[in-house]
Fold each of these.
Amino acid sequence: MIKPLLAAIVVAPALAAAAPIGPAIVKLWEQSCASCHGSEGDGDTRLGRAYGVGSFRDEEWQDRHDDAEIRRAIEEGKPTTRMRAFGDQLTADQVDGLVAFIRTFDPSPKRKVIKEPPVPPRQAIPKPLPPIAR
Ligand code: HEC
């Protein structure tokens, strides 16, 4: 009785600090989004390719879109594409969870989810040589 209780107390702060991504969100992604966006968010599925789905594993895409935009796309869909509105089927928490989940695809080391070791800093560009004195 005591052990599971302690475990819950120890684990709870870690869960609270992390984005609200639990197994339910992963399952939701797999059931409702992965057919087009891919389990890995790269859009590399049969439907994804057919519908011209882009990749969320793209640092530039992640930089260009803030959470509000991503949330709006999920809730309202993207007109003129096969991305439909999911707003009437999802709770606000589920939408937040999906936004956070999409962020986990970000390959950039500057954001929270680091899946690969950061790239070493680029070598300093050498200064041009001074002009030859005549
Ligand atoms: C039937 C295929 C399909 C399904 C299922 C689908 N999407 Fe999309 N989604 C698209 C297409 C097509 C686009 C528009 C092209 C693009 O932006 O990659 C898009 C765009 C988006 C965008 C905006 C991308 C941008 O650049 O503005 C987000 C965010 C998104 N989808 C999230 C989701 C989530 C979350 C789910 C599951 C709840 C989901 N999609 C389910 C096809 C789909």
Amino acid sequence: MQVFGPLEHHDYRVLDAECICHVCVPWRERHRALQEQQLKTQDHDISCACEECRIKVQRRTAYLAAMNKRDLYCEASWHAQLLTRNNNVFTVTVSDPVSGFALVFMNWLGGELNTRNDSWWEIRGLLLPLSHWFNRFSHAAAASGHSLGIPQYSGNIVAS
Ligand SMILES: [Zn+2]
Ligand SMILES: [Zn+2]
């Protein structure tokens, strides 16, 4: 088991089995907790409102939140590692990117994962495309000047 870095966090087959980062560990633990509770309540009716079933619903939300965060992080990592091979220039769907280092973006995104509650991540986290996060990052970077450590890039930015 090991921690896969932000720029190498996109191979689910490997991550599922080996990664113990701050994104994968909660995902794995919450999955186990949900399964445990599903077993406990497997012969309960779907409309059952007992305490165990209530816990099951809570654990499902917790798990789905962790899963959506992880999916976002993995998808972003895939694009981020591509950026590093292209001089850190955003080439994905960003209309007004602040170009910069992929790692800065990933670290910023890692922080964003901790800023909302599980219900938000269960529902909204699933619906927002990656471009939403790039745009948020752009705005955060623009608002903070150099404090995000993002260098200005003067070359062409290709939006696809
Ligand atoms: Zn991980
Ligand atoms: Zn029940």
